[in-house]
Amino acid sequence: MNPERPHIVVSASDPFGRGEERGERLRDALPGGLGLYIELFRLAGLSEERVREDALRTAEVIDAFRPRLRKEMDGVAAGAGIDPWQVYALNARTELLAQSGQGRPGECSTIVRRLEPGGSGPRTFGAQTWDWHVELAPYWHTHEVRGGRHDVVGLTEHGILGKVGVNSAGLALHFNILGHRADGVGGVPVHLLAATVLEEAGSVGEALDLVRSASVSASSSFTLFDRETAVTADITPIGVFVVEPVGGTVIRTNHFLSPEPRAGEKNELYQPDSGERYDLIAARLARGPRPRDAAGLLGFLCSGPGQPPLCCVPDMTLPFGERWATLSTIVLEPAGRTARVADGSPLEARDRPWRVLTA
After folding, report:
1. What is the pLDDT of residues 70-105, one digit of tens each?
2. Topology (CATH) of 109-358
3. pTM of the prediction?
4. What are the φ/ψ torsions at residue 309 (nearest 5 degrees)?
5. Distinct helix (H) and strand (E) counts, the chain
6. Rounded to whole angstroms, what are the CA distances from 50 to 55, 85, 158, 178?
7. C-alpha span between 113 and 292 (Å, rounded)
8. Strand 230-236 and strand 7-10: pairing?
9. Where does 7-97 sit in CATH, by number?
């Protein structure tokens, strides 16, 4: 882990205070990431005024879902010295960008394993790559969030309340983006839904109930696992569809695994890339032996020249908005309530230190 990578601890008892703590720590860096997103929105055909209108409309939805989330975002804005609508837009960046039909080659890959019960009972562990625009590499951080129902550790982007992590109840969440023709703005942002799941849910069952209670307007996958159970869910504007592990393993890339949303999938966004990455991981696992611990998952998420890009290397000859990189590798283990985070791909992480966080 880059020692200069921010690690932010927020622990105020009230949501506005937690947000303000986060915003103050990010005051110098957050505007840089915000500026890049404003440019990405522009490339998606969204003017700054349109983004502002959509962000304020989304804030009303958030207020109805969990008023504390809006208070926390208002705290981030106050602490960072920016307008609240800008923080709302960052947290709704998936929904805003869903309005564009632009293809996004290269995205996240996830594996979660559930070992069969033994002398000490079932064990679960997971790993994922987080692939995104290389220009945003300086604008994410690891965090500890304390003061809610459950403590949470993991990583997120500057200004966004949550993404990937594990909580003090031993519930873990990996996050992959999906694309459906019904996607757009107007629902609970999926990043805020992930933050809510990790703060409030103590098990996979509780997490699924919470996800089903939210009206979302953009698609994503949450791969959810606690000490004994692992599932992945296609979360869409047309419903939530749960997919069970196959042979004790969940593989997740960026296409739907359930038939209902697949009929409306935006295949032009992530295919054939997503299917090729999925098939590469599945073929490796089929050859065996299957990993028995979290560290053993990382080799299944490596790729080289000529292979589907499980590890994204940015092509700097392409224009801004098309330079994809693996920004981070994350390993989650519910039994120890731990998240291990490294900068870069699993290949790069072999020679880099990891940041180990415990909820």
Report:
1. 999 999 999 999 999 999 999 999 999 998 766 555
2. Penicillin V Acylase; Chain A (3.60.60)
3. 0.96
4. -80, 75
5. 12, 14
6. 8, 11, 22, 23
7. 8
8. unpaired
9. 1.10.10
